[in-house]
Input
Amino acid sequence: MAMAMALVAPGLQCGGCAAFVSSSARGRLQLKKSFARIVLSPSNSRVHCSVGTETQVQTLWSWAQAQGVQGESIRPSEVTEGLGLLAQRPVGQGDEILSVPETVWINLATVQKSSLGKVTEGLKSWVAIALFLIHETSNSNSKWRPYLDTLPKNLDSPLFWSDEELAELQGTQLLGSVVGYLEFLENEYNKVVEEIMERNTDLFDPAVFTFDAFRWAFGILRSRSFAPLTGEELALVPVADLMNHGVGLDDKNPSWLKKSSGGQIWNIGKSSSNVLTVRASANFQSGEQILMQYGSAKSNADLALDYGFVEPNTESQFGGGIERDSLALSLEISPEDRFIDDKADILEINGFQCSMQFDLPRGQGPSDEMITFLRLSALSGPDSFLLEALFRNEAWGHVSLPVSRDNEEGICTSMLEGLRAALDGYSTTIEEDLEILGQEDLSVRKEIAVVVRLGEKRVMQELQTWFEARLEELDSLEYYAERRLRNLGLMDDGGYMTPWVFNE
Output
């Protein structure tokens, strides 16, 4: 049975990597020419870490302490990842280990008080802060110079990859996300060039405020800000943002906490203001690196896009790692479906839309909501009576269980066809990816690409197995008609119709 639904899976979402790369390249050529691009060279440094010398580290810490940063139990230090925070004494889970006053943050209030304040009024918070970050980075006398000197110059998020490196993401949803973000950034950059920069060239030197600088600032903000200082409260917090990610840590109790500094010993005699307090997310011994969880709900694709690394499912000192393999599957009811209006009404009543995205972590299979959405999407022919106004409020409940053999078979075959097409969109197989991951000289970016595409394929392979098994059990399922008869007392537990004529 044909199914009036579009499966927007990775391989169907694009015509291959070439289409994405050429589209992105065309977008870059549309940048305002007066603000030239400077291409950043690839690097294997990780975006979630700073890179610096021991002298820079000491300069940063001395500067931070002079600015009122408090943290007797920690010290910034060079670590395997770049820079991090080391425990100077045993630290217990939940201990407050660092306090950074708002006067040290780089946020919208900072921008408003600067020379860019007036011309950046009305801009999105992140855009204003990004422009300020570029401005201060080029200012040798910046108040934040010791902090800015430790920020990584090159980032490993796919937003900074070459076209050749992006080709390794062929078929993945991450590639689509990267291209979407690049187009978004280019649009934002062109807009700010036209509305702000070209009108204030005394403040915005075209040689400094390039698209690559703007993209770099976006990458810094995306990789070094954490709740609660995100969104409109977005802020860069020196020293606190040196905490690296820890595999296996949970984030039930956030590491970052914003509160008032009023009443703190070091604040006596000063006006009350906000302060960021950092809490230890686990127990750490003296000399150990203090780590935090960057987001337990993030997939490897999210980690790659935000921070430029992926997390293998390995054991750590904090226990087993979190399952990071995931697939964001988009399902859409075709606008040409003859019952589109009825289905849209039912979806709206139940808090859904005709186009939905379902996040599918590896090992969990399709969610009940996804299967219910599929059944509703496939309703047609004799089953379409469930779309009548009489059933409108109960329809979602009816399709939460198998409707008919044809309906159930239709969603299985359609999903299998879509999954096969999506898997064909990748340039490698699961076995080939596993072999690549075993190579000793694998670069950071190649590892990211392989881990992400392998994770997506594993989830799709699991979905294939699930829907294939579903096809095999179609004859053993109970459908709407049988359930209705049973509820009316016209069918017994053995599946036989009860007598129409009752004995006297």
